[in-house]
Amino acid sequence: MTRASDLHRRAADSPSADVIVVGAGLAGLAAATALAADGAVVTLIERRAFVGGRAYSYPHPALNETIDSQHVILGCCTNFRALIEQAGTAWSIRWYDKLCFLEGAVAGPNQSARRSWISSSLLPAPAHQSLSFLRAPMLDRADKIAIARGLTRFLRGFPTSDRESFASWLQNNHQTDRAIRHFWEPIIVGALNDSFENCSTKYAGKVFHESFLRSPAAGRLGIPTKPISEFFEPVVKLARRLGVEMLLNSGVTAIAQTDGGRWRVTCGEDSLEANSVILATSLDQTVSLMQPLTTAGAWLSSQSHFASGRFSHSPITTIHLWYDREVVDLDHAVLLDTRIQWLFAKSRIRAWAPERGSYLELVISASSPELKLSRAEILREALRELAIFFPKVREARLIKSAVLKEARATFSVSPKLDAARPPQLTAYPGLYIAGDWTATDWPSTMEGAVRSGRMAAGIVAGDRQQFLAPELPPTGLMHLLSRQP
Length: 485
Prior knowledge:
The structure is a single chain. This protein is 32% helix and 21% strand. The chain is an alpha/beta fold. The strands form five sheets. A seven-stranded mixed sheet has the order 8-7-16-17-18-15-19. A hairpin with a 2-residue loop joins β12 (263-267) and β13.
């Protein structure tokens, strides 16, 4: 590992380094690997000792376990999948073609929850999930009619404008209460991590167009079979194979343009120069680094950054449970009419031997109320709700548990936010930005982060689209109906 103390030596040895990428989250990794594969000399600087940005796992000091917040991938996440495939680790994603919705309220105290399965059939898109949808007991006839009528609004695609909230859309399209609670809410809150009021119809429509209508392949659900940092380790190895010089534990304190038009990146007392710099950092860190640049300061003001309140974060809370035996018979499920939206049986997903017991993760998206509760309160309520859906947990011994609160898990794709999301190209030649908060036409997801990095790399190379993976094509009748590329 190269450290910041080596920067003076490297700057002297290689004064014409092509690109410096600041930040080794998914955006930075995507930018660095794309440019290095294209022949550029790339240095990747990360202030922490690990890569992945907000997508990381860590060893819990008291539990002797590695924990993370569960990340999932959809088949339509073509750039994320391309990066993983390039790293040779696509096999470590387990793909699912069925989604199970559980109703706990209809079951007796010792009965299992009622299950509704949404899955593809041999019918062509957009009707490929219609047979299972029509059979789903979680919805009655009026609910299904309302949902079908609503989904037809997204057959041709999703709105290009993000001015309307999804709450307004639901009201204008006369959705029933049960349709909202058992279909629209679990999908949107799970995918966009926020309330209907804080989600624009543009991005909500994108979720439904891609996941339920465009093609069976686009809506497939992928779950990593390893802790997320371990899952990304092959991407780090790929970057190093391509020649990317990685400087970990190296916090960037300043950037400045030299008299010759190059860029100087400072880490404490050390510095490094390059022709181009990509800031693949969080919005607030990017603002902090760019604010001293006069023109950039004006540019940032025009983009409505944090100071104007346009961007806001939405939290995710996860509850991690280890039992002495297997207590569920599903790899994952959507839980209805409860604070817990998703259950992931990580021991099943990771193919644990039965004698190791059971490891579950419960996910509460848009968990602002939980930020005010103690971990003991969150755990107690989660265990109560879990037992409603899976009575077997009452018979098992809970060996250990953990509650993880991520207050800044994602940013909200609120109505009219697109106007504030800046492009990857800045006002300064040779200075670019990347991150899921920049303009990508995707919400705050791993796919959005990878796309932003590849877009920034493309601009450096001369073509913004150069490194972007193609979208999955619509299939069946959607080939004729969809106006989306």
